[in-house]
């Protein structure tokens, strides 16, 4: 019986454990993290990998790997127990989680942070293309494929470079545009003479928040990037270097010389078949308190939760503060007094060492931290994103020393 069991050992989990321990009300030995993977990834770094901001593949492996990948136990207090197994089921009535090897763990409080699955198999032809080192198809949504993306961008000699967006939910929905702009910049730097960049998306607009949609639309237009709304990638024929998109019930064939794929994303299998999720397969929690709607000792945050916000690490950091406050209020028998209003942020690289920082909350309402820097792409914020945040992630988050947009200052409800 653990006081806290945390299902999943990714970004949300590391932040949660850091904040729980900072309250000094719980010993590390009272927490169990269940995570099958040996390595923990800083996923926002994968855009920089693919886009060449960290150099070539060999530069990355020699100089930057420590920023991108850590042993899972390094992202937690050394006395927190990590169970290197997969969660295989939930028994919320009996406060139990099942894990691989037919074992189970009992909890007082369960925090579910299982992320979201990328489903490359859902696009026929994609796995064959992306696994083939000679096929110019890559994706920043997996580390090995991001390394391949880096290589195919550098080797691109001209022609059609195609980038797609998947249907929502997509973690970091701005990432497909980031890699597109970084690729465009590399083509120019590498002296590629004849190239055309196009962006295909199932959504009707390029970004869900009108202010940023206008800025991003203008940036794309200024570079001659074609933007194709309501086009959904359905299949690929790698031999013909052709991608197919569904548009108004017709199939459109597009030839490519380079293709970046954002894969469809879906809740992890173990959640989809469990009792703790909504109809879409995400953990069914209150959108303000982050407490489960039916089981009060179950909580969730991050990409696997039903929160109707944009799925990002920045959102997760904000949620972790609300959750830790509310969980201790519940333990103390007090009302849950902290509310999450959907804060999320998406820093979009747009080339020329600049970045557009998009910050918003539920219903796409603006929620900006630096309004004077957010009306156009900023070099200062680019530097912060490239150099500062990966190090904050590595050193501060696991220690509970990072309060999201409050930086290192504890919010007053805490
Ligand atoms: C290319 C890319 C760029 C991004 N850029 C940004 C950005 O610039 N800014 C930003 O804020 N966010 C960004 N994100 C999004 C951010 O990385 C995620 O939103 C964040 O990692 C979510 O944290 P999480 O803990 O919910 O999920 P994850 O960090 O994915 O962790 C989920 C964990 O659950 C584990 N797990 C899965 N199934 C099981 C199981 N059955 N049993 C036990 N464990 C399991 C996984 O192994 C994983 O460790 C980006 C993501 C990508 C892919």
Automatic annotation (TrEMBL):
GO CC annotations, alphabetized: mitochondrion
Gene Ontology terms describing biological process: sulfide oxidation, using sulfide:quinone oxidoreductase
Species of the source: Stentor coeruleus
The protein, known as: Sulfide:quinone oxidoreductase, mitochondrial
Source domain of life: Eukaryota
Family: Belongs to the SQRD family.
Keyword Oxidoreductase: yes
Compartments it resides in: Mitochondrion
Keyword Flavoprotein in annotation: yes
Key words, A-Z: FAD, Flavoprotein, Mitochondrion, Oxidoreductase, Quinone, Transit peptide
GO molecular function, one term: quinone binding
Cofactors that this protein relies on: FAD
